[in-house]
Amino acid sequence: MDADAPPPAADATGRVWRGVMAALALVLPALFFFRATFTRDIFLAGDTLRAFYPMRAWQASRMAQGQFPDWFPADGFGQSFPAIFISGVFHPTTLLHLVLPLGVAVKLTVLLCFPFAFLGTAALLREWAVPRAGALFGALTFTFSGYLVCITNNPTYLLAASAVPAALWGVLRFVRGPTPARLTVGGLLLALVAFGGDAQAFAVTQALGLVVALSEPLKAPETWARRAAVCLVMVATGGLLAAPQLFPAVGLVLTGEPGARTVTEAQRFSLHPLRLGELLLGPFLTDPVGVRGIPEIVVRKLVFMGGFTRAWVDSLYVGTPACVLALAGLGASWRKGRTWVFVGAWVLLLLLVLGSTLPVYGWVYQALPLWRPFRYPEKLASFVVLG
């Protein structure tokens, strides 16, 4: 018997755990979105109707004819469809359109994001030796957070955000035991974030992957030089596997104007500091159904949307228990250097999400030319919620 193999009882417990988590990953989102699951209702809010449906419909029509969707004629004088990063032309869920009607395929695309987020978060936490109960709680907190639920109004960003935990899990697994198989899995999961259609999420996930990798304690006889090489290989693999989506978009940026022409435009949809209370209390300012108890005219004076008539998402809720447990975890591990690396990364993301409220986003915009095509700081709230 292999000395490193787990005892039979532990192995059986692990199989039961994985089976339970797989069942919960399917059942809980189906019940949470019961109207989408058990009726003909479909997701239509926001850019789901304005952008996601038209692009998916056009791509589906091309694929049905056995043609690659290379040129999109409906945008101005036309342009390369893969170069439109938000098209998500290479995402695996586009294959659903070959066998399902448009509305059903989009509905299933949205619903599948939640099991993926659930399992990815649980796997990441278990990889960090978080107890099973804690991993389950963390997976529930992120999967059904206000941000992920509300960003169903724009599936492009839901696809990317839901893949981030699994991508970080893949990076961590490769760093702890570099093998060709783990490199392939980690690279594909990183590329999946890009294939979702959110270039900024892909860039931030790559950066967080480096943070996770470099903060991992060295094991003898590993050296920092070897760890750095492992990190570079992982980043390069993720980038190369995402190249079919990245390279056309880079070519478009180099020959045209970036999405955010000025720092002011880039910082539209900045998170107002008052909305940080939503992490604990729920959408007391931006809830659209009129139950917040604060008159609309007061909200509009308190929360400036950067020229828009709505917030990027209507809720950032994660819950008071999750916030209290996060602080308790910080108190229990404050002596570990890795803890403060993660806290520093989270604080930086929080400062970026606040956008025009603080000068930090503007500094990054000016200092990093590759950051300039990105806009709407509130998109980064998914990372704050995950943290």
Please tell me the total number of domains. Answer: 2
Could you say which structural class the secondary elements and strand pairing correspond to? Answer: mainly alpha
- Largest sheet report: 2 strands, antiparallel
Low-pLDDT stretches are: none
Identify the overall geometry: globular
| Order of strands, widest sheet | 1-2
Query: In DSSP terms, counting alpha (H) and pi (I) runs of 4 or more, how many helices?
Result: 18
User: How big is the Rg?
Assistant: 21 Å
Number of strands: 2
Binned, the helix content reads 55-70%
Average pLDDT taken over every residue: 86
Please indicate the percent range of residues in DSSP E strands (runs of 2 or more).
under 5%
Quaternary state of the chains:
single chain
Helix/strand order, N-terminal first: HHHEEHHHHHHHHHHHHHHH
Distance between the termini: 40 Å
Protein name: YfhO family protein
Organism: Corallococcus sicarius
Keywords: Membrane, Transmembrane, Transmembrane helix
Transmembrane segments: 16-34, 95-118, 130-150, 157-175, 187-215, 227-247, 315-334, 341-364
Task: Describe the overall structure.
The chain has helices at residues 8-32, 34-38, 47-64, 102-127, 132-143, 146-150, 155-176, 180-196, 199-215, 224-241, 243-255, 263-266, 278-281, 296-302, 320-332, 337-353, 360-367, 381-386, and strands at residues 71-72, 79-80. It has 387 residues and is an all-alpha fold. The protein folds into two domains: 15-256, no CATH class; 259-387, no CATH class. Helix 8 packs across helix 10 (224-241). The longest helix is centred in the first third of the chain and has 26 residues, at 102-127.
